[in-house]
Design brief:
Number of strands: 20
Helix content: 25-40%
Number of helices: 16
Shape: globular
Strand order of the largest sheet: 7-8-6-9-10-11-12-13-14
CATH superfamily of the largest domain: Mur-like, catalytic domain
Oligomer: single chain
CATH class of the largest domain: Alpha Beta
Structural class: alpha/beta
Largest sheet: 9 strands, mixed
CATH architecture of the largest domain: 3-Layer(aba) Sandwich
Bound molecules: adenosine-5'-triphosphate, magnesium ion
Length: 472
């Protein structure tokens, strides 16, 4: 049997809590979702969109070892051991702090932020670092004020490498999270006009990303994108904090410099020059943007103190690294008479990832799939610049040779109106209104790329295409 994640006294103390009862199971994990809870996990009753206290009984019914609840929670029949705190978020943050403190001095923590590419980079690091030692990383994009504490609270004491994704929508949000994670290495993937609705300028976004350096441990390293226009701003912030800087990109002065990049429809072959020599590796995720993320991964692995041989060994894991779900995963759907290639980018969108996805779509050979169709939903949280940023996608659409563009949402109307008639597909106010037109017009031999912000609900279009063309 594996080690318990936490002892009872230990977790109660870490949460700054009072114990009410004793668990009958050993503690195997923590969960905030009673529906997905595994037996032995501690249910954390967070107050977010819903109040988790409503689901405490359901969590115990699924075999929760205990529940972290407010002091005021009234124990129900069937409830097991309770960890009572004034505030459950503060309680889980306390557990997170203790989890970080109990890591051995040899352990390495990497924090990842950036306007796009956090989860992709996090998953690459998980794959690579797992080759070097027990590695812990978050589920999904758990990167906010509750996701970061939850990820740390779930971290086993024996963790050798931890990867922590840190996101933000507003200035000031990253500081407490990076101070909790106390990374040895902090990556900023890139700075782009995302969440512009909450910021006065892209410089202000860069400053908010730069907050990540505030938590870097003494002697630690910031891994920064040298090709990004905001590099010097981030570099100055890192140096002011006393961190070293490892730069990555194509710029001639990069520490991890891409010297060769062969972009294929399903994989990318990369050669990167590092301080210690040249790393040659393959990446199973297509697109220049993913290749850029992988350079940050190489820089971080080395910055963790690994020698060159170990870094090369770790990077070898990327040969089987496909894009995470909804972030460019490609499916060949075979129906009667042939196949379509479905590119599922439905997880999210902003101007940077939209252009990256269009560029990656253009890698699909026309000899195999003659026609290119893009189904695009609104990119959200762009503030006043939204119409211009949507209409401004036209050059990227043209450069990618997209033959037909379907659009959904009020912002995408700006792109729809700018499209030349030959490329103009149907526009609808919502994604629901597009399903019929898309499924009717897509035919065998098409590459179909579906992308939009999560709130634009492009997932159902992906599902409808799967249903229509089936999978073989
Ligand atoms: N370096 C990059 N440049 C541009 N686009 C990228 C880059 N890396 C990933 N993407 C694209 O951006 C989208 C989001 O990727 P990912 O989930 O990795 O980002 P994230 O920063 O974790 O997003 P979130 O803020 O939603 O957690 C995907 O479509 C992905 O293909
Ligand atoms: Mg993410």
């Amino acid at each position: 049997m594996s080690e318990p994640l936490w002892g009872w006294d230990e977790i109660v103390r870490a949460a700054g809590a009072t114990a009410d009862g004793m668990p009958t199971r050993t503690i195997a994990g923590l969960s905030i979702d009673s529906r997905g809870l595994a037996p032995g996990e501690v249910f954390v009753a967070l107050k977010d969109q819903r109040d988790g206290h409503e689901f405490v009984s359901a969590a115990f019914a699924r075999g929760a070892a205990a529940a972290l609840v407010d002091t005021a929670y009234v124990k129900k029949p069937g409830d097991g051991a309770l960890i009572r705190v004034a505030d459950t978020l503060d309680g889980s943050t306390g557990i997170a702090r203790a989890a970080r403190a109990r890591l051995s001095p040899e352990a390495g923590v990497v924090a990842v932020t950036g306007s796009v590419g956090k989860t992709s980079t996090k998953e690459m690091l998980r794959a690579c670092l797992s080759r070097l030692g027990p590695t812990h990383a978050p589920e999904k994009s758990f990167n906010n004020h509750w996701g970061v504490p939850l990820t740390l609270a779930r971290m086993p004491a024996s963790t050798r490498y931890a990867v922590i994704e840190i996101g933000m929508n507003h200035a000031g949000e990253i500081i407490p999270l990076t101070k909790l994670a106390r990374p040895h290495v902090a990556i900023v993937t890139t700075v782009e006009p995302v969440h512009l609705g909450h910021f006065a300028s892209v410089e202000a976004i860069a400053d908010a990303k730069a907050e990540i350096v505030e938590g870097i441990e003494p002697g630690g390293v910031a891994v920064l994108n040298r090709d990004n226009p905001h590099f010097t701003r981030l570099e100055a912030a890192a140096r002011a904090h006393g961190a070293d800087v490892v730069s990555f990109g194509t710029h001639e002065r990069c520490y991890v410099r891409m010297v060769r990049c062969v972009l294929g429809p399903d994989r990318t072959d990369i050669e990167a020059e590092c301080g210690n020599g040249r790393i040659v590796y393959a990446l199973a995720a297509p697109g220049r943007h993913m290749a850029m993320n992988s350079l940050a991964v190489a820089g971080a692995i080395e910055a963790l103190g690994n020698d060159f041989e170990s870094t090369i060994h770790a990077m070898g894991a990327l040969a089987s690294f496909g894009p995470p779900q909804g972030r460019g995963a490609r499916e060949k759907l075979t129906g009667t008479g042939g196949a379509i290639l479905l590119i599922d980018e439905s997880y999210n969108a902003n101007p940077a990832s939209m252009c990256a996805a269009l560029e990656a779509m253009a890698l699909v050979p026309r000899s195999e799939y003659p026609r290119r169709i893009a189904v695009l939903g609104d990119m959200l949280e762009l503030g006043e610049a939204a119409p211009e940023l949507h209409g401004g996608l036209l050059p990227a659409v043209e450069a990618a040779g997209v033959d037909l563009v379907f659009t959904a949402g009020p912002n995408m109307k700006a792109l729809h109106d700018r499209l030349p008639a030959a490329r103009q597909g149907h526009w609808a106010a919502t994604s629901d209104g597009l399903v019929e037109a898309v499924t009717a017009q897509v035919h065998v031999g098409d590459t179909v790329m579906v992308k939009g912000s999560f709130g634009s609900r492009m997932g159902p279009i992906v599902a409808a295409l799967r249903a229509r063309f089936g999978g073989a």
